[in-house]
Amino acid sequence: MDNLKMDVEDDFFDCVTARHTVTDPDQIFKKLKHGGLLLIRGVDKMDCYELKRVYGKGQGFNDEIPISVIDYLNVLDAGFKDVELVPIHVREFYKTKDDLIALLMKTPILDEFEDKELDLAKIDEYIKNHTYEKGILLIRRYYGISARKE
Q: Disulfide-capable partner of 58 in 25, 52, 79, 99 (CB 3.0 to 4.6 Å)?
């Protein structure tokens, strides 16, 4: 269900999860039962940051306040208790340059990345500096928020 348009009565859910999406903590708070849990997983400014630095752009690259902090504050402001913000770091390896490019074409890591914007020299630079025995490394940096409605 879209957490921005929750068409159920208040105090309905025991748990609401939101993954890689915009959230409305005020609405979620109303729809959770007392004692209910909110779990958020998101992508933050530092996700694939080394690659974003090579291109000088990307999702959250110029954010003064990371979305994780904004989400955390919004959850607190909605009235949740036991709010915890945790970093989630994942090391992903891609076997080939084509695998890496396929990821970049379908995700917003570099903001509207398209073939016509593909600077192969920059990709090659990144690959040269981030290739290991397991493949081409991307360090993914996500965040998690857990909170309880009392």
A: 52
